[in-house]
């Protein structure tokens, strides 16, 4: 990929490392990987690791700026899991969630938004707090298509647990059923 610039967020498909490009030299880039770690008080922190080298050819276009644009299948599963337990979005990094614009799209006439620093789709009452830096609406047919597959799978998986009492076992069953339903739809997580 020749359109990579310093500061772009990319993922290396071979190592799975994702982060900001800190240097470019010929056909290689240095990526400063970012991971989420649990802090000493139980909070989640975004931690930057030492830069790694990756070949430009190993950077997939769909992964560029993945946090801002298209969540991965694993991230979508996590978003749906938060939704399934009826929780508002979980804020992992308050400062990041407040400082970055929300990414939004419309699904079945409803506006759905998420923010860096949060897991799960933002509930209506969270939009005013975590989308103050703006809301980005772009036509995202691939995201809507993927979200539709996940939504259909979640609906089917939910049918399997409707009669179960709330609790950890219910979530475990839902996750198992979600995996089966996603597999039927050609999504591997």
Structural topology:
Blueprint: E1 9-11, E2 18-25, E3 28-38, E4 44-48, E5 52-55, H1 73-84, E6 90-91, H2 94-99, E7 102-107, E8 110-114, E9 118-119, H3 124-130, E10 135-137, H4 141-159, H5 168-184
Parallel strand pairs: 7-10
Antiparallel strand pairs: 1-2, 2-3, 3-4, 3-5, 6-9, 7-8
Helix pairs in contact: 1-4, 4-5
Listing every helix as H and every strand as E from the N terminus to the C terminus, the arrangement reads EEEEEHEHEEEHEHH
Number of strands: 10
Structural category: alpha+beta
Please tell me how large the radius of gyration is: 18 Å
Query: In terms of per-residue confidence, which ranges show pLDDT below 50 for 5 or more consecutive residues?
Result: 62-69
> How widely separated are the two ends?
26 Å
- How many separate domains make up the residues? 2
| Arithmetic mean of pLDDT | 76
Proportion of beta-strand residues? 25-35%
What's the total helix number? 5
Overall form: globular
Characterize the main sheet: 5 strands, antiparallel
**Helix percentage:** 25-40%
Describe this structure in words.
The strands form 3 sheets. Strands 1, 2, 3, 4 and 5 form a 5-stranded antiparallel beta sheet that branches. This protein is α+β, with helices and mostly antiparallel strands and 189 residues long. It has helices at 73-84, 94-99, 124-130, 141-159, 168-184; strands spanning 9-11, 18-25, 28-38, 44-48, 52-55, 90-91, 102-107, 110-114, 118-119, 135-137. Mean pLDDT is 76; it is low at 62-69. The protein folds into 2 domains: 9-63, no CATH class; 73-184, no CATH class.
